[in-house]
Design a protein that fits this description.
The protein is mainly beta and 123 residues long. The chain is 5% helix and 49% strand. Strands 2, 4, 5, 6, 9, 10 and 11 form a 7-stranded mixed beta sheet that branches. Strands 1-3-8-7 form a 4-stranded antiparallel beta sheet, with no helix packed on it.
Length: 123
């Protein structure tokens, strides 16, 4: 069984920064899987935010966060991060960590999801 545990969410003013973390535990080695981040705002569908392949290369971002968010991973700590800068009120959402094969993660159908962490950006 694989578990994903997010942390780092909170309340921040517009223009501020937050860093989310997600620790993965389970049978399959962390270094073998793609990790990603999604978010779901109230009344909206869950949407893709960012993904990074197992080697730490080829970061892929949604257009709405390019240039502001950075995904990274530490294969020793089994952790993926999402550094969020220049936050906007429209970034307010529950942010979910995801794990699986690259194609599935980017398509929004990863093998595993975390429970989510709330990010609220005030104007």
């Amino acid at each position: 069984q694989v578990q994903l545990e997010e942390s780092g969410g909170g309340l921040v003013q517009a223009g501020g920064s937050l860093r989310l973390s997600c620790v993965r535990s389970g049978r399959t080695s962390f270094s073998f899987v793609t990790m990603g981040w999604f978010r779901q705002a109230p009344g909206k569908e869950r949407e893709f935010v960012a993904a990074m392949n197992r080697n730490g290369g080829s970061p892929y971002y949604a257009d709405s966060v390019k240039g502001r968010f950075t995904i990274s991973r530490d294969n020793v700590k089994n952790t993926v991060y999402l550094q969020m800068n220049t936050l906007k009120p429209e970034d307010t959402a529950v942010y979910y960590c995801a794990s699986g094969l690259w194609g599935n993660v980017v398509a929004g159908t990863p093998a595993y999801w975390g429970q989510g962490t709330q990010v609220t950006v005030s104007s």
